[in-house]
Amino acid sequence: MHTVNLDLSLEEISKIEGGAGLDISIKDNQVTKCEFKITEYKRFYTQAIRGKSAAAAPALLARICGTCSNAHILASLEAIERALQLTPSPQTMTLRRLLMNGLIIRDHALHLYLFVLPDLFNKDSLLDFDDANPKQHQLVHDAFSVKDSGNQLSILVGGRSVHAPLPQIGGFLKLPDPEKIPLVYQQLQTVRPAIIKLIDIFRLAPFSLIHSVPYLANQNEDYSYLNGDIISSDGVHILPQDYRSHLNHICLTYSQASAYTYQNTTYLVGALARMNLNHPGLHPKTQVDAASSLKLFPSKNVFHNNLAQAIEILNAIDDSLMILGQNKFLPEPIIKPTLQSGQGFGIIEAPRGLLYHHLTIKDLIIQDAEILVPTGQNQLNIENDIKTLVNQKLKSPNFNQANLARDIEILIRAYDPCMSCASHFLKIKWC
User: Fold this and answer.
1) Which residues contact 135 (CB under 8 A, 6 or more apart)?
2) CA 32, CA 54: separation in Å to the nearest integer?
3) Which residues pair with 362 in a beta bridge?
4) 426 and 329 in a common domain
5) Are both 415 and 274 inside the same structural domain?
6) Are 66 and 278 in contact (CB under 8 A)?
7) Helix intervals (H) in 26-180
8) What's the pLDDT band for 6 if we cut at 50, 70, 90?
């Protein structure tokens, strides 16, 4: 049997959000070191936000992440409103739900079509798809059509697809233009069949890595990303205000991101966790058209995170069509807070998992902040799964370094870690 001793250094990991790297050491066919390094993460937002107006906080905190900016806006709005004991109107919550759906459609489409789909067709890029092949030609067009439908829904509700200016503390600056609602409605209907095809593609994807970890996600009756109590796959029910107390902060000397454990072990948040714990709340039409895929959940295959994201796109479309078809948005005043000081938390499901904002406000000025993002929470689990994958590959009689590099790329992309987007593929330096 072959004996492998080598060090791997992944200097750049691409098709993910921002700067990251990976160092692996293999001694006598066993991984002895595996360090997933988030190298461009620490930007001191929790310090920079101190002394700023609470009213400005959502727009400022949105700059943490361009692609997930609207999730940070919604989490910080919830934190401020809880701190100041302000209850937004039902119409405001409906509009925020639509804004979140737009983010889910756009963000998941970017990940699945542009980052992950090329792996299934053994391509380096979606732009390498064969234009003469009808299936590949159509998938390229679907990628941009679906992504644009999410953009247009976000623009309709939030004013922009990213860094939406319209959602505010206690309401919206402007309501959706009634003349544009039918156009967005029609666009969502048009792209829906493409998502059903996408779900089937990921249902049949050949990749698999089984792990056994706790999954944490919001639970509610209608698969909302904005409310509900948190549950875990080990049967623990967590009130949103108690979430932070269930997590332990871990400082990694090689990474700029804070890591966390739950019950002293790694855990997973994101689409796979949501689908495992909350799929009965999916829209009825989604449950019908994704029935074959939903039979696979709950799943312990981390690659089913991609399948879960595809199902979530369909659900966001169906939910948005229902809301746009059943509601007329009427002018209403923005609710003004009566308090000026307090502490509040906002916890929502961002595309990649549970996002937590905790803000302390005094005289409408931010005094302190704590923010937990999904990728930081998944960081240790990513490391463990990479280690498991490499150890499995080392046992194969067909092991070779080139295949291992590709397999690591595909696994990391399955998690859809959120750093700033890169346009090149990951390169591995073999030492």
Assistant:
1) none
2) 47
3) 365
4) no
5) no
6) no
7) 45-48, 57-61, 69-83, 90-109, 117-120, 134-158
8) confident
